[in-house]
Amino acid sequence: MLHRLNMGPNTRSFVQNAILTSISLPDLTAMGGFLEPVALKERMVLQEAKRNIEHVYFIESGLTSLRIIAEGSIFETAVIGYRGAVGAAFLMGESLSTHQCVVLLPGRALRIRVADLRRIMSDRPDIQEQLSRYAQALSLHCAQAGLCGVWHDQSRRLASWLCLASDNVGAQVLPVTHDYLSSVLGLRRAGVTETLIRFEEQGLIRKMRGVLEINERERLEQKACCCYKLISGAYASAKPGGQNLRFDARSHG
For the domain with range 153-224, which CATH number is right: 3.90.740.10, 1.10.10.10, 3.60.15.10, 3.90.350.10? Predict the structure, then answer.
């Protein structure tokens, strides 16, 4: 049986999710009695497509993959780590999930039932506003990922994915394989391998068995397509005090 989180005066120092740390302490305390710590295990399914969204998972560590599955193929539309939440789509009026969400890198999360979160938000609109801003940024992320797959070459797409994944885990070491990157980005494995070898020769990354380490982050960002800056900017604007910027999902470079 899962234990509810006991919120006290020093709660904020123990919460690792960026959305929750941006919420006022009284609002966070109100949510605390409904938050459940959950261990995220590799390949654990947090959300299934065409199923009711029953929980919101505030990721504290690890990395999850939001993807669409059609005719046996997988297309990843976003990665979600400690900066975000799985299940926030219900704020956009969706009762059924359009995506599957799977744990890519193990970690932990705080989970709350959607029904409980709705009741809390009805009394505390600031919580709804903050979550809605995040949900809008995530929506742009998903839309931009689809357009990126049409417009940009594999080198730029790979650089963008590595930067986004690194941002979401807050680390430069990513335990991902060539097969995984090939699968979720819809690229040939041989092409992924060739591109990563080139990145390594340029000193941008270091490849080890099942692990990629980013060595030159700024230079890798320069290799990434414009989608990386668009998506990062959307999440930055979703933070408290962030500007409500308009992003043109059709922009490309």
Answer: 1.10.10.10
Sign of the C-alpha dihedral computed for residues 149, 55, 120 and 109 taken in this order:
negative
Partners of 21 in the β-ladder = none
Domain boundaries, the chain: 11-148, 153-224
The whole-angstrom separation of Cα 145 and Cα 108 is 25
pLDDT bin (cut points 50, 70, 90) of residue 7 is: low
Neighbours of 1 (CB within 10 A): 3
The CA distance from 160 to 158, in Å, is 5
Burial readout 98-134 (b: 16 or more C-beta within 10 A, e: otherwise): ebbbbbbbebbbbbbebeebeebbeebeebbebbbbb
Please give the pLDDT value at position 246: 41
For 25, the token pair is 């302490």
DSSP state, residue 180: H
CB distance 215 to 204 below 8 Å: yes
CATH class of 11-148: mainly beta
What pLDDT, in 10s, does the model give residues 24-72?
Answer: 999 999 998 899 999 999 999 999 988 888 999 999 999 999 998 877 7
Q: Are 46 and 102 contacting, i.e. CB atoms less than 8 angstroms apart?
A: yes
- Give the Cα separation of 27 and 50 in Å (integer): 31
Cβ(53)–Cβ(89) below 8 Å: yes
pLDDT tens sequence across 133-174: 999 999 999 888 888 877 788 899 999 999 999 999 999 999
